[in-house]
Write a structure and sequence with these properties.
69% of the residues lie in helices and 2% in strands. By secondary structure, it is mostly helical. Helix 4 runs antiparallel to helix 5.
């Protein structure tokens, strides 16, 4: 089992393929459960779940292709060997964990408890501050980055809110 260019191993592709397949199938399941609006005379190709179902199927199929590629590259045989991430791998795992934590705080902690505009601005600000590697050093440099992050967060929050409410006509929490 060898690493491909970019340091991606067949084992990573194996687990990634399984994860993408599960995600795609969950989307398909959700789209099947959606109301088909038959009481309004909607046909199967105008049902609200059609596009998400097609996209979920595509994601699951691409996950399957990734899984097949991983198996061909020897990922199954490599499962018997112990896995220890490299220094770059540990950094990637840490960053992915932080991104997941911030996303969970946003979706489970902020949405519904604060106006969407405020919650999304806080999320974007926190995300920028956590992942901005240039925000180290002198306090004046950190203050400058925080100011830029705050401006970016407010502008992003306002634009996202306006696009969803005015263009897509979606009521935000």
């Amino acid at each position: 089992m060898s690493e491909r260019p970019g340091g991606v191993s067949a084992r990573a592709d194996l687990f990634g393929g399984l994860a993408w397949m599960a995600f795609g199938l969950a989307i398909v399941g959700g789209s099947i459960a959606m109301d088909r609006l038959e009481q309004f005379g909607a046909t199967w190709f105008t049902a609200p779940g059609l596009v998400p179902g097609v996209l979920g199927t595509t994601v699951a199929a691409l996950g399957l292709l990734l899984l097949v590629r991983a198996v061909k590259a020897g990922a199954v045989a490599g499962l018997a060997k112990p896995w220890a991430p490299t220094a770059d791998g540990r950094l990637s795992l840490k960053r992915a964990s932080l991104a997941t934590l911030l996303s969970l705080i946003f979706t489970l902690g902020l949405i519904g408890r604060l106006p969407f505009l405020v919650a999304s601005a806080l999320f974007v600000f926190a995300f920028i501050m956590v992942f901005d590697v240039s925000a180290t050093g002198a306090p004046s440099r950190i203050a400058r980055r925080a100011t830029i992050a705050a401006i970016t967060a407010v502008v992003t929050s306002v634009v996202v809110t306006l696009v969803f409410e005015r263009i897509f006509l979606v009521r935000l929490p």
